[in-house]
Each structure stands twice: as C-alpha cells, then as structure tokens.
Amino acid sequence: MIHFNPETSTFNLHLKHSYYAFQIDSAGRVVHLGWGPRPETATETERIRGSIRYQTYPPHLSFITQHRPDEILAFGDVTTYQETLKVAFPTAGSPLARGESPHLPVRDLRLRYDQHEIVVSGSPGLSPAHGLPTGRMSERETLRVHLIDPVQPFKVILNYRLTPEHDILERWIELKNEGDHTVTVDTCYFASIHVPPGTIQLTTLSGSWAAEFTPTRQDLNQGIFILESRSVQTGHQANPFFMLNTPDRATEEGGTVYFGQLAYSGSWRITFEQITTRQIRVHAGYNPFDFKINLAPGDTHITPALICGVCQDGWGGASRRMHDFLLERVLPAPRGSQPWRPVLYNSWEDTYFDLDYDHQVTLARRAAAIGVELFCLDDGWFGDRRSDRAGLGDWYASPAIFPKGLRPLVDEVHQLGMKFGLWVEPEMVNRDSNLYRMHPDWVLHFPGRERSEARNQLILDLGRTEVVEYLQATLDSLVTENAIDFFKWDMNRNVSEPGSVAGQAIWYRHCESVYRIMDYLRRRHPNLDIQSCSGGGGRVDAGILARTDQVWVSDNTDALDRIQIQEGFSLCYPARVMEAWVTHNQNRITNRVWPLALRFDVAMRGILGIGTNLAGLSDVELAECAAYIAYYKRIRHIIQSGHLYRLQNLQTFGESVIEYVMPDGREAVCSVILRDFRPGSIRPLSPLRGLNSSGEYQVFDRDFSEFARLSGFELMTLGIPSEPDQYPGYSRTWYLTQID
Ligand code: GLA
Fold first, then answer.
1. What pLDDT was estimated at residue 740?
2. Dihedral angle at the C-alpha atoms of 379, 383, 385, 386, nearest 10 degrees?
3. Is 348 in the pocket of ligand 1 (CB under 6 A)?
4. What is the pLDDT of residue 646?
5. How much is the CA Rg of the chain, to the nearest whole Å?
6. Which of 286, 311, 330 is the last residue of a domain?
7. Which residues in the chain show pLDDT less than 70?
8. Is ligand 1 within 6 A of the CB of residue 535?
9. What is the CA(382)–ligand 1 centre distance, in A?
10. Which of 19, 225, 258, 296 is the most exposed place for a label (fewest CB within 10 A)?
11. Tally of domains within the chain
C-alpha cells in the first residue's frame, strides 16, 4: 500500500512485513527516511508521519557535506560520493551573467519534486514484450515520482513497484530529455538504496567457469566494493545479487536481511559504499565502465529494474522471497498440460562434436525408454561445425550429418513421445562460416584493428538492426520448419573490442537486442521453451528469466562440486529453473568417479537431466536410471514449486541437507548429501520445517520403500533418523507424505 501525506510530503510504502519511507524536503529533494521490518503489531494505518526531522548532524560534522540520503543521488547534488545518475548538458540552459564562461558541458543535475502518481497494473514480469502471462497476474501498485531539473528541460521518474506478499520492491528510473539538444548520460544506476549503518555483512555469489555461484561472506569497510560484469552478458565471475545484514545478527533462518538482484543481463555493476558517516549505500544498474547514453531531443530511456527487499527470517527467508517472486512474477507461466519442467536428455558430454545421425536416434530411443521427456541436440549439428573452429552463424542442418535435414530426427523424437530441443548460439559467428564470409562487418570490432577471437569466435554486432532482424528470421524459420520445442540458447565468450554501429550504447543495446529476439520468438511460438546458457552459468539473472524457462548452471557436472554450485545458486534462484544432469561415471572435467545414486540425488535437486552416454549403459544401469526418473517424477512438483530450506549447508559440517516443502505442509522432499564426512564423527540430525506438527508422515526412500513413519512433531524436532552407513558421498532423497 502506498500512502502520501500532503501535509508533510511523506511517502509510506507498506509491504506485508516491511516498510519503506521517504519525504520531499523544503527544497523539493526526495530524501530517504527508512527501510526495514514493520513492527509486528502495526496496522495498515500506522505509519511515519514525517512531522519530525530525523537526520540532524552535530555541528562538528559540518565539514561533511553531501551525506544526505537522497533517493536518487544526482551528480550536482552529490559529487563527493558515488552518484546514481550523471548527466552532461551541452548548453547552460539559463542566461549567463556578464562575462561568465559557460563551462560546457554542464555536468550538474538537480532533481526536484514535481508531482507523483500511483499506477495500478496487472502487467506481468519486469518488462518483457513477449506477452506471455506470469504465474500470478494480480494487480500491483507502482509509485512514480516525477522530478525535474530547475534549469534544464530534463525529467527523471523514480519508480517503486510493490509486491507486498513477498516484501519486494522493484526500483527503476526513466529519463526524459525535453530540451532541444542531445544530452549525454555518463552514469546511470537503476537505483541507489540506503540500509542502516552497521549493515555491513555482505553475501555475494562469485566464481568462474566450472565454479559458478560460490557464496562469499565478508564485511564492508569504509569505501567502495564493486561487483560487476564488463561484458554483454551477466558473467561467471559474479552474479548480480547480494544480501546484507548486521554481523552476528543474521543466521540461515533468523535476523534482518536486506537483499537485491538485478533484472538485467548486460554490462552491470553493483557498488557497495560505506561513506565516512558509516551510512551504507548500494548502487545497482548499468556499469559506468565505457558507458554512455545519448538522449536525443524528445528521447526517453527506461532502465531495467533492481529487485530488492528486506525480511526478518534470515538468509533462507530472503532466498524464499526471491524464489517466490521469480516463480510468480517473472518467469513465463508454465504452458500446456505439463506444469512441471520436463526430464531432459542432452547429448553434449556423450558426443561433443562427433555427431552422427544413427547414434542420435539410438540415444533418443534409449532416452524415451527410461522416461526422458525432452531430447536436446547440442552443439555440432549445423553448417561445417565439426569442431569449435567453424560453423557458428550458419543455422542450417549439416548436410554431412543430416542429409535430409533435421526433420527426420525431430519426427522420431516426437513419435517417441518426447519434445525436441536444439542448441543454438545466435549471438556468435566463426570466421570460418558463410555468414562471416558474407558479412565480415557484422561483428563487434574497431576498423583497422585486430578482432580478438575467444573459442575461435567473434560476437555479432547486435547494435545493427539488420543483424537483429536476420537472427529473428533465421531462428523463427528454424522453429517453424523443424517443429522445435526448446532452444538451448548459449553464449560462449566475453567482449574484447566493443566497436559497434551503436557506439558505447552497445553495452546495453546488445542485451536489449537479445531480449528483443527472445520476445519475438516467444510471441511467434508461445509454446517454445528457452534455456539460458553461457558457457555454463554465465547468464543467470531476473532479466533473462523473464524470457526463459530454465538455465544451465555450470559445465561442471561433478556431483560433489555441483552441490556447492547448486547451494550457492539456491541463495537467489529457485530449483524450478535449475537444470542439472547426471553424467558419466567418471566425470569429464574432474576425472572423479561417483556412484549413480549420488549423481541422481544431486541432479534431482533441480530439473533432472541426463547427459551420459545411454548407448554405453547396461540394461541393469538403464533400469536403475528409469527407476530414479520415475521417482523424480513423483516428487518433482515439490522440488519445483515447494519452499526451499537449507537445513545444513556445506560450510558448517561439510554436509548439505535441503528440504522442499509444499505450502500446506503435507508433502516434502529432504535431500541429504555428505560431502566431507569425517569417519569417527556423528553427523547432526536436521529438524525439518514447514510440516504439520500433528500430522503423521510416511518417509519413502528413492526405491519407494517406506523408511519410517514419524509425526510432524518428531520430524520438526529431531528430523529423519540417520542410517549407519555414512561416508563421503552418502546421499538420500527422502519423500515425505502426510497420511492422515
Ligand atoms: C557451452 C555449454 C555446454 C555445451 C557447449 C557446446 O560450453 O555450457 O553445455 O552446450 O557450450 O559447445
């Protein structure tokens, strides 16, 4: 609920368990008052009146200027600290005093309150243009605060959209150039947020290829700490997500935690700043690195959003809020009769580039026989793509492998009762491709300069309209002609020479174009599913999730490495989007050998996939796979839609215990994996959460045998009894169902 007090010019934004408040001061500046949990007994009508000035500073601090916590920190009002927005005007805008030099461009923006409006809308997601509904379409309120510069014809609108049930605010800004000259924007974060002094313990997800989503916890010092991507995709080295709390005041299931994530897949930055007064600010949005927006007269620029919130139930509570928000308000709603993500087979780790038609058919038949629902043909199927040195850009079936095109394989897969998925990497081109030979100017580069390759490929210039249109048409006909149900959309390199017809705008234009192509395809093919992949987990964020159905988390499929990667992923993203494969006995990246049961138990924590050579498995092994898949299908609705609790995480005992529980508490899954179990020690039991304490539950093992019958009370106090055989790599996936 949004409330405005006209007497004190105070805004109160009330969410289910939290409040957010700010006030217009006498000069028209929008000043932050506070953000945090609401008192538990508070009613709807109790709010901050704004009649008292809260932030006054002792006189000995008078030399500290610019500490005022403005809702938007414009370069002009603030220069000492990090600004949200920096704009340069080519003219002074007002008459000069006699003899005064104009000091052009004028790098000074003051934003003063003009008016506000409250918009109520049921529009889905963040800003996707594909028109597909999200899971929940009920109306939400957005507060729009219009600000104007007193001298320049320049307007900024601050947006606050409320999702009260999850205590989530989406923040973004709109810039409008209402003058006669082009204005340049040098810094543009989507929002700056203020958290209370002392909220310095920061949780982030960083990593690298094959080790994505590694949780890191550290304290902020005075100064600036930066997370960023300097490429045109989200990146492996950091994910645009954070949690903040006061040290020692938060745990997995308790304490006040602030959290945020960007709905954007381009070059981003999140800047954490502790200024000299110990106030904490977080600025999140476009990366100012090599950044520029040229706003022509009459132009408007709307930024993507920062999604943020605060909760009182610890890091786990913050995760669950973000999971629910993404599932209900961001992801396209499940379509067709199948509400759950299908079990997938992917041939990449089996064949790499060594594809052959008959082998694919064998794989498809075996996959269907063990219960797979979606068969995905990976890299190597097109043009002259017999290695990563050629073919990218030529999106037609390789005549050497598919002499009659893709259709016979697609039809075979459909007849086997599975959907057909296809790997594409639309943003890329190899030099050795027909597309590059025809259009060598279609790639990011600076004329006369070297074009650096990575994985032997160059990036198409998605600042060019003709490239975007070419990709839309090519992918559209690929889907139409071959009845494709699913794209695995990959992106396998970082930017080197960012030269584009779009100039410096390419840093965000590339991402906008990817979104545009995806939105176009989804509009044209409402039943097409898309998986986001970028050399593993390099493009996972709320912006891409508004257009995709699932994501590839990492190329590292080693079961024990994967627990950590998936646990980190769960801090921000729900299991319903997390594709996870069971691959070979001996892992292709780490060379380690793990039992099939462990590999299944790890992969069942998300969307189960199979990536092993099914043609090389014995009938016994295939039957074992089929049994696990059948078990997964019985429990996946809980994994894909239940609330997730990290009952034990790896940092504490080297043991990972994750529970998924349905909102009514009648069904749950408890996944236990011991990574670093020390012989001679006894592992702690993990009390479950969210069950009905008076209920009686059956606990099933993954062979559907009943392991125990326990009351909800027993399960939520002591947990599931441990078994005697405990060793590193021990794993179980228990299914719990209430029987009375
Ligand atoms: C990336 C993906 C893999 C696979 C290869 C194909 O690395 O993450 O899953 O699709 O590309 O080249």
1. 84
2. 120
3. yes
4. 98
5. 27
6. 330
7. 55-64, 124-127
8. yes
9. 15
10. 296
11. 2
> Cβ distance 156 to 30 under 8 Å?
no
Mutational test site, ligand 1, from 233, 344, 345, 348, max ligand atoms within 8 Å of CB: 348
CA separation for the pair 555, 392 (Å, rounded): 20
For residue 721, the domain's CATH number is 2.60.40.1180
Can you give the three-state secondary structure of 632-677, one letter per residue? HHHHHHHHHHCEEEEEECHHHHCEEEEEEECCCCCEEEEEEEECCC
Q: Which tokens in the block code for residue 445?
A: 């580069």
Residue 358 designated active-site: no
- Span from the CA of 541 to the centroid of ligand 1 (angstroms): 19
Strands (E), 306-354: 306-311, 344-346
- How high is the pLDDT of residue 73? 98
Q: Does 250 fall in a domain?
A: yes
For ligand 1, whether the C-beta of 588 sits within 6 Å is no
pLDDT at residue 181, rounded to an integer: 97
Strand, helix or coil for residue 548: coil
The CATH number linked to 143 is 2.70.98.60
- What is the structure's pLDDT at 423? 98
Name residue 698's beta-bridge partners: 709, 737
Q: How far is Cα 443 from Cα 471, in angstroms, rounded to an integer? A: 13
Q: What is the span of the domain harbouring residue 717?
A: 647-739
Whether ligand 1 lies within 6 angstroms of the CB of 379 is answered as yes
Task: Check residue 126 and give its pLDDT.
Answer: 65
Q: Please work out whether the CB of residue 645 comes within 6 Å of at least one atom of ligand 1.
A: no
Q: What confidence score (pLDDT) does residue 338 get?
A: 79
Distance 515 CA to ligand 1 centre (A): 20
Among the listed residues 588, 531, 525, 527, the one whose alpha carbon sits nearest the alpha carbon of residue 558: 588
Active site residue 313: no
Domain boundary among 298, 330, 362: 330
Tokens of 395: 């999106």
State how far the alpha carbon of 218 is from the alpha carbons of 240, 249, 716, 740, in Å.
16, 14, 32, 46
Q: Is 486 within 8 Å of 528 (Cβ atoms)?
A: yes
Cα separation, 167 vs 1, in Å, equals 11
C-alpha span between 546 and 674 (Å, rounded): 35
In a domain, 463, yes or no: no
Residue at 559 is within a domain: no
Q: Is 564 in the pocket of ligand 1 (CB under 6 A)?
A: no
* Interval between CA 377 and ligand 1 midpoint (Å): 11
- What are the angstrom distances between the C-alpha of 148 and each of 296, 470, 490, 500? 17, 40, 42, 33
Classify residue 561: in a domain, yes or no: no
Give the up-direction half-sphere exposure of residue 476: CA atoms within 13 A in the CB hemisphere: 14
Which of 430, 531, 533 most suits a substitution to test ligand 1, by most atoms within 8 Å of the C-beta? Answer: 533
